[in-house]
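Re: [help] complex structure
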Amino acid sequence: MIAFLRLFLIAAVLAFLQAFIIQQVDMGVWLRPMPYLLLFFITPININKYGILVGGFFFGLFIDILAGNFGIHAASIVVVLYAKNFIDQRFIDFDSLKLQGETYVTVNTKGWLFFTYYALSIIAIHHLTFFMLDYFEFVSFFRMLLSTVVSAIGSFLLILLFKSIIKS
Amino acid sequence: MFIVLQWLKRNSYPLLAFFLFGFAVNQIMRFQIYQHSYYYNSSISFFRTIDQWRNNVSSYLNLKNENEGLRQENLRLRSQLPINKTAVNVFKDTTYFDSISKSLSNYKVVYTYIRANIVKNTVNSRNNYFIIDQGKNQGILEGMAVISPTGVVGVIINTAENFSRGMSVLNSKFEITPYIPKIELRQGVIGWSGMDYTVADLKEVNRTEVLKKGMEVVTSNYSSIFPPNIPIGTIKEVSQKNNSNFHQITIKLSTDFSRLQTVYCIKNNYHLEIDSLSNPIIDEVK
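Output below.
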C-alpha cells in the first residue's frame, strides 16, 4: 500500500514537473525531454498489466490536462506501455529478478549496457509516438526522428538523475 | 459465440491498448487545433476525390438519362423561342410598363413541338422516307413539319397509333419555299435532284438577284407548315444558263440525313385557320 502511495506521489510530482517546469523551459527545437517516463521504470513488473495500462493512460491524461496537450501524452504512454510489456516478456527473466530482490529493471539487473538499451528503446518508442502525433505530417519525418533521438537522450539522462535522487 | 469470447479474452490486452490509444487520438483530433484542421482538411480532400470518382462513373452510366433530359430541355426551350409566338394586341398597350406586365397574355403559342426518334430512314432512293417512334397517340398529325437540331427534315404524311411516316427533303415530291436572310429574298422553291443526299436545288430564283456562295438559306415565314428561320442549308454553287431567266443554285443541306437520330415534329396550331383563309383567296382567283 505504501509502495502504491509512493508511486502515486512520484507520478503527481513528475506530472507537475513535466507540465510546469520542463515543458516551460526553452531548450531548443529538438530537445523536449520527458522524464516522467521514470514512473514506468520504477513500477513493479509483476503488477497487473491491465492496471498499469489504464493507470498509465490516466497519468498521461493528467499531464495532458496540465500541459494543455489533449491526448498526446496519453496516447504515447499507452503505446509505450504496450511495447514495454512486450519487451519485458521477451528480455527480462522474472525469476532471476525475484531472486535479486528487485521488482523492476535496474542497472544491477543485467549491467549498464543492457539497461541503456532497454531504457533508450522504451524512451525512443514513446518519443517517436509523441512526435509523430505532435508534428502530424509525413513531410516532417526527419525532423521527427531527430527530435526523437535528441529528446530521448535528454530524457534518459534526466531519468537517471531523478532515479538517483529517488534512491537517495 | 464461444469462439468470439475466447478470441476477445485472448486479445483483451491489445484491444484495451487499442481502445485507450484510439480514445487519446480522438481527444487530439477534437481539441488540438493544428491536428484537427490537418485531419479534417486531409479527410475532406480525400472524400472529395472519392466523390469525384463516383460522380465520373455514375455520370458515364447515366449518359442516356442525361441525354434524354437535355432533349426535353431543348424541346421546352424551343417552345419558348419568339418565332413560335405571335404578338397579339401589342398595339393596344400605349405604355411601356403595361406592355411588360401584360407581355405574357399578349402572346399566343403558334407552334407546338413533339420530340421523336427516327427508327427508319432511307437516303439512297429517288423518293426517301423516314419513320419516327411517335404516332397519333402522342399527338402526331399528318402535315406536321419535322426538323432536326440542325435543320429541316421533312413532313409527316402517314400516322399510325404509335409510329408515323414522313417524307424527307430527299424526295422528289418535297418542296419548300426558302428565305435568304442576307438579301431578304423570299423566292423560288427548293427540291431534291435525287443524286446526292447532302445537296438540294433551289429553282426559280430570278437571275437579277445577287447570290453568293455561303449565303444561309432558311425557312420562310410564308410557310404554314414550318416555323420561320429554320436552317435549310447554305448556297454551295450559283450558275446561270444563257437562255434561262433563273439562277441554277445548289444548296448544301444543313441536316445530315445519314445520321438522323432525334427530330422534332412541329404542329402549327393555326394551320387550319390559315388554310380556311387561303381557300377563299384561291377561289376568288379562280
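Chain A touches chain B at residues 49-50, 53-54, 57, 60-61, 64, 69-72, 74-75, 78-79, 81-82, 85, 133, 136-137 (CB under 8 Å).
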